[in-house]
């Protein structure tokens, strides 16, 4: 009986710590959470003055929070990229009905943080040896992808992968896709700044915040003052 209780508790934890929708009908959740979006202040800066970078490394709630803590980053949006389908929805992507991955769009100041450093943040904040999985989230929609917009960015990514593997940093082969960037579809409004606005969500408490804290511990020199 004790073993059964332990097993049920483990299953409950997994069920409540998933980035996927709890039900196939997310309309109720969307209506409720979109009300909170009204409290989010509009972009305080002109983002046209910043460079952009794109990454996918698991649930975009986690990834967005990590990059937003990095100095030189002005804004980060959660969204979908890496697949051919146009205008995908969260439900479609989260249930693996597209070839997109949950991704982020990072607006950054290259005079403060370089693309090379953002690549270091990317590889240092997730497990790039885990195929189609990050933490409790499984499926190709959670795969690791480093997108590049030109040959220079591609070389930075591939050179860094070679460096990590030559030093056997992870002890296993890196399975991150190095993929040319095509299109980024911004996720629904209620996903933006999700961690900040939903601190009591079980997934945020058990998965996202611990992941963010591990990153902060290892990349202290990369953090904004308010992120320390």
Structural summary, described in words:
This protein is α+β, with helices and mostly antiparallel strands and 228 residues long. The chain has a single domain (47-227), classed as Peptide methionine sulphoxide reductase MsrA (Peptide Methionine Sulfoxide Reductase, Chain A, 2-Layer Sandwich), CATH 3.30.1060.10. The chain is built from eight helices and eight strands. The chain has helices at residues 2-16, 27-37, 60-68, 90-94, 115-124, 151-166, 194-197, 202-218, and strands at 51-57, 73-81, 101-108, 133-134, 137-138, 144-148, 177-180, 185-186. A hairpin with a 2-residue loop joins strand 4 and strand 5. The longest helix is centred in the C-terminal third of the chain and has 17 residues, at 202-218. It starts with a helix and ends in a 10-residue tail after the last helix.
Topology, pairings included?
Blueprint: H1 2-16, H2 27-37, E1 51-57, H3 60-68, E2 73-81, H4 90-94, E3 101-108, H5 115-124, E4 133-134, E5 137-138, E6 144-148, H6 151-166, E7 177-180, E8 185-186, H7 194-197, H8 202-218
Parallel strand pairs: 6-7
Antiparallel strand pairs: 1-3, 1-6, 2-3, 2-8, 4-5
Helix pairs in contact: 3-8, 5-6
């Amino acid at each position: 009986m004790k073993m059964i209780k332990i097993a049920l508790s483990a299953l409950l934890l997994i069920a409540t710590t998933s980035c996927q929708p709890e039900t196939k009908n997310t309309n109720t959740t969307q209506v409720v959470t979109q009300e909170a979006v009204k409290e989010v202040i509009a972009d305080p800066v002109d983002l046209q003055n910043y460079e952009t970078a794109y990454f996918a490394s698991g649930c975009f709630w986690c990834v967005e929070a990590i990059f937003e803590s990095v100095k030189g980053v002005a804004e980060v949006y959660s969204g979908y990229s890496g697949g051919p389908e146009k205008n995908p929805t969260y439900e479609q992507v989260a249930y693996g009905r597209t070839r997109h991955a949950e991704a982020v769009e990072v607006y950054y100041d290259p005079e403060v943080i370089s693309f090379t450093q953002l690549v270091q943040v990317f590889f240092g904040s997730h497990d790039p040896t885990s195929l189609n999985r990050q933490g409790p989230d499984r499926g190709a929609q959670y795969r690791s992808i480093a997108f590049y917009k030109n040959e220079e960015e591609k070389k930075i990514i591939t050179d860094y992968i070679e460096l990590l593997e030559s030093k056997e940093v992870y002890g296993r082969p890196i399975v991150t896709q190095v993929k040319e960037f095509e299109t980024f579809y911004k996720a629904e409004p209620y996903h933006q700044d999700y961690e900040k606005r939903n601190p009591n969500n079980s997934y945020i408490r058990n998965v996202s915040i611990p992941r963010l804290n591990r990153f902060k511990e290892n990349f202290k020199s990369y953090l904004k003052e308010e992120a320390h």
